[in-house]
Write a structure and sequence with these properties.
alpha/beta, 10 strands, 255 residues, two-stranded antiparallel sheet
């Protein structure tokens, strides 16, 4: 049986993202959603999804919005206005300025907020946008502290998850580290399914959404979100999944 795991990141990023993630779940093929707990629209997004049978992960965020902790307690992560430093600041820095102890504290606080908002542990536990080694270490520390299913950064072809699961990650909307102007999510999805192997599960990391003012002023990833949402709710794609008996994997079922 062919299989694929499809994940939609960034629940809470903005209202428009929330609506299209909900659409991609309720009327589409997405059954794994990553939650950014610190954003103003997070509660609204979770309310939309409260009756959906899906997995919810903690999409740990240190590059957008305000932190859960007081800004004065995590100075390496915030700007002068008390907002998280943007992802481009991390990308353009020649050194990892993230202080491990501060990041562990913020990640821990976000985890406890996730528990409060969702009412249970996340089905997977990973990080948003920032490829910092100290951020990665902080995620691992908190995951080990609370026995959470840590999912590593999507680098390489075989990402181990839990004990016996291996993912081959595909980050939608990007090519060679840049926004892919010719991105075709339908073609990408069909190719991932076609070339899936028995021992490794293709993991489609997406950012389904639509555009609003906050998104276009805070994210470089815009049009690919719209394309993904359209693909995931496409009647043609849903029929292909059903007719070909494609298994849509959830993180919670992985061993």
């Amino acid at each position: 049986m062919k299989k694929i795991l499809i994940r939609a990141d960034d629940l809470g990023y903005s209202r428009s993202v929330n609506f299209r993630i909900f659409d991609s779940v309720h009327n589409g093929i997405v059954n794994n959603v990553g939650v950014m707990v610190n954003m103003p629209s997070t509660r609204m997004g979770l309310d939309l999804l409260k009756n959906e049978d899906i997995d919810l992960g903690m999409h740990t965020n240190i590059s957008n919005g305000k932190p859960v902790l007081l800004a004065k307690d995590i100075p390496s992560l915030v700007d002068k206005e008390g907002n998280f430093k943007r992802s481009k600041v991390y990308r353009h820095s020649k050194k990892d300025f993230v202080i491990l102890s501060e990041t562990v504290a913020e990640v821990d606080a976000q985890y406890h907020l996730f528990l409060k908002l969702v009412g249970r542990q996340p089905d997977y536990f990973e990080g948003h946008a920032v490829m910092s080694e100290n951020f990665r270490k902080a995620l691992q520390i908190v995951a080990e502290r609370y026995h959470l299913p840590f999912l590593d950064f999507p680098i390489g072809n075989n990402i181990k998850f839990k004990q016996h699961t291996y993912f081959s990650p595909y980050l939608g909307g990007y090519k060679d580290g840049k926004i892919d102007e010719n991105y075709d999510p339908e073609n990408a999805l069909l190719n991932l399914i076609k070339y899936s192997e028995d021992g490794t599960t293709p993991m489609y990391i997406s950012h389904a959404g639509c555009l609003d003012y906050y998104l276009i002023t805070h994210s470089s990833l815009t049009i690919p979100r719209v394309k993904e949402a359209q693909t995931f709710t496409s009647s043609r794609i849903k029929e292909f999944i059903t007719d070909n008996n494609i298994h849509l994997v959830r993180y919670s079922e992985c061993l």
